[in-house]
Amino acid sequence: MKIFFFTKSFIFILFLLMACSPSNHSIYKINIEKEKDMQIFFAYRKDAGIIISGHRGGMPDGYPENSIEAFEKTLQYLPAFFEVDPRLTRDSVIVLMHDEDISRTTTGTGKIGDYSWKELQQFNLVDRKGNITPYHIPSLKEAIRWSQGKTVLNLDKKDVPLEMMAAFLKRLNTVNVMLTVHNPKQALFYYKQNKNAMFSAFIRNMKEYKAFEKAGIPWSHFIAYVGPELKTEKQDLYDLLHKNGVRCMISLAPNYDKVKVDNERKNLYKISVETSPDIIESDFPIDVYQAMP
């Protein structure tokens, strides 16, 4: 088990590491009890350690992306949060599915919007290698209820209208959800609905930084997606974000996650870890964690 060292102020984050081995099915937890806990947990602090996020919910061997079962499997190995993909069924149930078409990740075919929630349950999810699993498409409501007291879900922007998502989250009264926003307009819409909303924002350059700064939302409400890797020529951007208490997140999904040979991919993860990003998002969060010193 890896040991994390935090400052006294960081201990308040409620980062509960359960002393267990993966074999007994206990899990690590990120326990968010109040909305303010999200801001405290994700705030940048020097030498606070790397947080890992499972892209599309992570893809452990034998477990499908965007599934509660994949979340739970990952949490047997490490404390992580999960980026997931909400989409709408024909009868307006929000479910987790990355693609508009269900053919790649299920035993069915066609567009997810052509099926009702009940009809989708006839299909099984398949893992990244195409193997059929016993698992089914979860609703976002199921995923959020399962996640409470265990982890944080970062909701990407797919086809769910902002108004519908804001109303949905208000009804559910959840405190452990983050929203991916691609521009300040999206962030401002959610912030006006909920002054404690937490955002994963696309801030990959100074132009995007200035646009979010102009929006006037407190920086304590953000983590920043800065691209697939840290670049020395963008150090001024990272320094500004850190000065404002914002963690910089890289995503390995567009590059290193696509390397087919396991040993090569894991060596590239070690290189990414050595660049010291604040958050690493990956399809394979367990492998990234095991690449950490």
3D structure, described in words:
This protein has helices spanning 8-11, 35-42, 68-75, 117-120, 140-147, 162-172, 184-193, 206-215, 235-243, 262-274, 285-290, and strands at 15-16, 29-30, 51-54, 80-84, 86-88, 94-96, 153-155, 177-181, 198-202, 222-227, 248-251, 279-282. With 293 residues, the chain is an alpha/beta fold. The protein has 11 helices and 12 strands. The chain has one domain: Alpha-Beta Barrel (TIM Barrel). It starts with 7 loop residues before the first helix and ends with a helix. Helix 9 (235-243) links the parallel strand 10 and strand 11.
Brief description of this entry?
By secondary structure, this protein is an alpha/beta fold.
Q: Please report which band the strand proportion falls in: under 5%, 5-15%, 15-25%, 25-35%, 35-45% or over 45%.
A: 15-25%
What CATH calls the topology is TIM Barrel
Structural class: alpha/beta
Instruction: Point out poorly predicted stretches.
Output: 1-24
Mean pLDDT: 92
CATH architecture: Alpha-Beta Barrel
* Annotation, overall tally of beta strands: 12
Count of alpha and pi helical runs: 11
The global form is globular
Biggest sheet features:
8 strands, parallel, barrel
Helix content bin: 25-40%
> Looking across the biggest beta sheet, what order are the strands in?
3-4-7-8-9-10-11-12
If you compute it from the alpha carbons, what radius of gyration comes out, rounded to the nearest whole angstrom?
18 Å
Distance linking N and C termini: 11 Å
Listing every helix as H and every strand as E from the N terminus to the C terminus, the arrangement reads HEEHEHEEEHHEHEHEHEHEHEH
CATH class: Alpha Beta
CATH superfamily: Phosphatidylinositol (PI) phosphodiesterase
- The structural domain count equals 1
